């Protein structure tokens, strides 16, 4: 306790770490959140973003990608005092609404016991809230249209391209370089050249394409408080509600299926066959326009270890652990990186080098775990959600959760509605599987014994 | 048959592929072998190597790294007419000679049935043989001291740094770029930026360091016709014979164990404890000198997919699949890449684009399999070889192999002494495991029944 008093002041700023010049590469959700946290800890922050300031760039109505905010993201936002502001414009989603091929729907609530839910938030809006909050700090400086071209992590020197037309280069230095530059991180690229850096990137054979269910008479065309899913084995479609009462629809399927759809006629046939109830909602004309407007996008999973380089650089968010989007945890995990890192930074007698090393130690296995879970959930969402065995397990989990809310938290709930480390969520699920197996064995053997006894008695 | 006559001439050159300008990056074993093959197929080859010509560079006696040449490498050398020349100076190794902590040795032959063996060859010598053979082709040009700095694979353009002091740059173009530039391949680095390129690099926690058992009175100090192994659970040491009657010794152990040995005294204590019989052979003075001369080296495993980029570039050898060195298959697998690729190139009506794509299709799973096997064998060599169960299995395998040489080829033998695809070697082993489990079950139940019967009779 006395240690804490010695090194951390009343505002939670760790006095054992002198103010650093911190360069954050990437001004997306994780980068702008990290900037706020560093600033609150008394450091001098320079945030470099390769795009222009999204707050002044053009908004395409109803097309902004939306995200499912859950517990981990909320907690990280609460820490910088922004949770309420974000939730005030978010749309709660209380469960999955499943659409079958005939257009029949059924609902599976995420948490029938305590009514926790996911929140659909617009990526652009959330980013704007974070950037606006950062602007209030005198020790944060934004540098838009600055693309990192090269860096010497050991020396803390960077070179940015800051005007695309004239290839103008700008140099900068920092005590700490923070890579929040996403799946194709230039900071990680630099780190990957050091010996002992483990890394993997794995593309999946499914691509995705965004469509839109527009508002009709200024109303949602489907119940808004659900994450809508059309599970179809090999492929699937999901839809999340937007503030403007449209839905952003994401169609995921193997690239070879995308390639097989070459004409508007083939597209409509395909949609009428698999997603018949969605056709009138999207509208045939808009469907054709959106589908053929752009190519399906790749999806990939990225793991690496370590997340830091000496006491000079660290990776946060997708730069450290990009995942396929099917657990809705990409943003939440990235924001939780901030929660963890800044809690480590506040530990007594911490140095920046020790903080970076500790972050790697504590975070790698959880980051790998959520990457694996996201891959697993892709299978679950497009396939298992339709299966009888999945529904049975879901019911069993829900029942046990209701009776033992502190002991039996189903996997999805522990991931989405708690801050339990991801690797522990998996371990917890494995423990549950073991218990259920044993119960099944006892029930079955009792039944056999009972029938046997009946047979002998008669 | 008529197809073959139409497109492949009497020398096996595929007439459906016009002569290409081929740039091979890397003049090591795989690069120089690939150059020979391309040249024999009528293409114009430019081989770029970042080091100087090893044939004119200084040789350090007894320190050249040696390699275990086996069936796949031999076959690839035979195809370019160099097998006999290479084998004439190679040293056959008929089995493993195991050294226990007390210095007692025992022998496990690789192939007691048909006497196949591994051949210890010097990397430098083999590379020289290949480069000399290439020099005879008017359509091969060597460019030493050319380091690839950047490449545009799509356009087939490359930029080389060809004088280190003056940073002189040279530009070149090619129809096909062949990356034979090893584990840290610059060509792969370029390829990895394309969407859909799967990649992983995994460092192991063990490093290695090379020592030397010099010749004594111009004689080998240990029996030369074995691969000597000192298995010690967490760490191990191996030694391969050299032409000059020395042995190159490779010490592998966790970095933390290396770090724990800081003084000559600690080193000698460590060696007397674990490798007592090797100390007088190496000599205390040389041991201390070699051990502290350089830092232990990292070992890593690299997998990727695909191995090609459009009809413009391909990766062969370590650039495509670097592995830990514990199956002695790194070079053999790289050379086998050439065997496979050039056999595809000779198929009727082949185009270069189709050949590259086919190579990826046929090679990826086998390359991944041998990377996995190499990792597995690391455990086997330093741990299992000492175990009773390993020796039993080895005996059982040998016995079955002797009686059914066409049906029961043990894993190590199928990898080292056949050209069976690596993934099939693993599948074959799994099939053998299943059979042995069943046999064990039958034997055990028969024994139980027999004892039970005896008990009832008495």
What this model shows, in words?
The structure is a homodimer of 458-residue chains. With 458 residues, chain A is of the alpha/beta class. Chain A folds into 2 domains: 21-371, FAD/NAD(P)-binding domain (3-Layer(bba) Sandwich), CATH 3.50.50.60; 390-457, no CATH class. Helix content of chain A is 42%, strand content 23%. Chain A has helices at 2-7, 29-40, 71-79, 83-88, 123-135, 186-191, 255-260, 264-274, 279-282, 284-293, 318-321, 330-345, 352-382, 388-403, 411-417, 422-457, and strands at 21-25, 44-48, 66-69, 91-93, 95-99, 105-109, 118-122, 140-143, 147-152, 157-163, 168-173, 176-179, 198-203, 206-213, 226-232, 235-241, 247-254, 300-305, 308-309, 313-315. In chain A, the strands form 5 sheets. A 6-stranded mixed beta sheet of chain A has the order 8-2-1-12-20-19. In chain A, helix 12 (330-345) packs antiparallel against helix 13 (352-382). The relative contact order of chain A is 0.14. Mean pLDDT of chain A is 90; it is low at 1-5. Chains A and B meet through strand 13 of A and strand 13 of B. Strand 13 (198-203) of chain A pairs antiparallel with strand 13 (198-203) of chain B. Chains A, B: Residues 21-369 form the FAD-binding domain. Chains A, B: It is found in: Mitochondrion; Membrane. Chains A, B: The chain crosses the membrane at residues 20-39, 439-457. Chains A, B: It catalyses: L-kynurenine + NADPH + O2 + H(+) = 3-hydroxy-L-kynurenine + NADP(+) + H2O.
